[in-house]
Design a protein that fits this description.
- With 327 residues, the protein is of the alpha/beta class.
- Helices cover 44% and strands 15% of the residues.
- It contains 13 helices and ten strands.
- A hairpin with a 4-residue loop joins strand 5 (144-147) and strand 6.
- Helix 12 (279-291) crosses helix 13.
Length: 327
């Protein structure tokens, strides 16, 4: 049966609100929560960017049942992989084994801030492979000294290692990503419901004698009793989504995203994001993921000021409808 998650969108809420949203999501019956890890919002209209790892630590103590993911962290530029390993190990302990480390090769928007430039996609993928190797070694609790093409590690050791192994999910968007990351990932992470991607992932995992793990997708929705208000909000805060990752990965500022999406119309957003009160339309949009073979789907409810009403009026019946339709 497909599992359904809730997205802690750090770009659209402050830290205390995100913890409250996580509590409400667990009460509503969501199976897991994922958190973005951004230094900046996509658009200034979103207005937030708290530190995801502090939020997740608080969420781990405020919840009991939901699995927790980073969705996703880049362990190569803003963070050195030894630091991500330490954070992930601590999170797994705080969450009593409910944490999955979701990783990706990052976006310029968040990673350029440390002044190291923005490498090509091939270099970023090489860095991510090397970072995963380092983190896997550190998760054993052994002392590690490492000299690589991109990273050096000098006598590092994790002193607090969780009893539960830390699963690593890697963001993949095409055949090249599956080929590079499939052998080293426990789970697939993707933002488009592409059956060929899931099939390639499963095939590769079978070829190396490993189970395919989970295929975790994500979809934005904008529930609101007023469809016009929902479309306007989605356009104001989420039109960046129309650019696709080939564009989104390379733009460095919110001004760049605003300029790149200035010609995206509200009706364009409404064509790609289910907006308004119609739960059947949301279910239909989400169904593309389980039909493509995804095991887990995280919903993004657009609008930081519209989470409470979503939980009060829509979350429970929406989850019921999703589970009936996917069973």
């Amino acid at each position: 049966m497909t599992r359904f998650g809730y997205t802690l969108m750090t770009e659209q809420n402050g830290p205390k609100e995100l913890v409250a949203n996580a509590i409400a999501a667990e009460r509503a019956g969501f199976d897991f929560a994922v958190s973005s890890d951004h230094y900046s919002p996509w658009l200034s209209a979103q207005g937030h960017a708290p530190y995801a790892w502090s939020v997740l630590g608080a969420v781990a103590h405020a919840t009991e049942r939901m699995d927790l993911f980073t969705y996703v962290t880049c362990p190569t530029m803003r963070y050195h992989p030894v630091i991500v390993a330490q954070k992930a190990a601590t999170m797994q302990i705080l969450a009593d084994g409910r944490f999955t480390l979701g990783l990706g090769s990052g976006e310029s928007l968040n990673e350029h801030v440390v002044g190291r430039g923005w490498p090509s996609v091939d270099t970023r993928q090489d860095m991510l492979v090397e970072a995963v190797e380092i983190m896997r070694e550190l998760f054993t609790g052994d002392l590690l000294t490492f000299r690589g093409r991109h990273f050096d590690v000098d006598s590092a050791r994790l002193w607090d290692v969780p009893d539960d192994p830390i699963a690593i999910g890697l963001a993949m968007s095409g055949a090249q990503g599956v080929e590079r990351f499939g052998p080293i990932a426990d789970d697939l992470i993707a933002t488009e419901p592409r059956k060929e991607l899931v099939d390639a992932w499963k095939s590769l995992r079978n070829s190396v004698g490993e189970p395919p793990g989970r295929s975790v997708g994500q979809i934005p929705i904008c529930w609101d009793p007023d469809r016009d208000a929902a479309i306007a909000r989605a356009h104001d805060q989420f039109r960046w989504f129309a650019g696709g990752w080939a564009v989104n990965a390379d733009l460095p500022t919110t001004a760049g995203f605003a300029a790149a999406t200035q010609y995206v119309r509200p009706e364009d957003v409404a064509d790609t994001i289910p907006c308004g009160p119609d739960l059947d339309r949301i279910v239909e949009a989400v169904s593309a993921y389980w039909e493509a073979g995804f095991t887990d789907v995280a919903l993004v409810q657009i609008g930081g000021d519209h989470q409470e009403r979503f939980f009060e009026e829509a979350a429970v019946p929406l989850l019921e409808a999703l589970r009936v339709a996917s069973s």
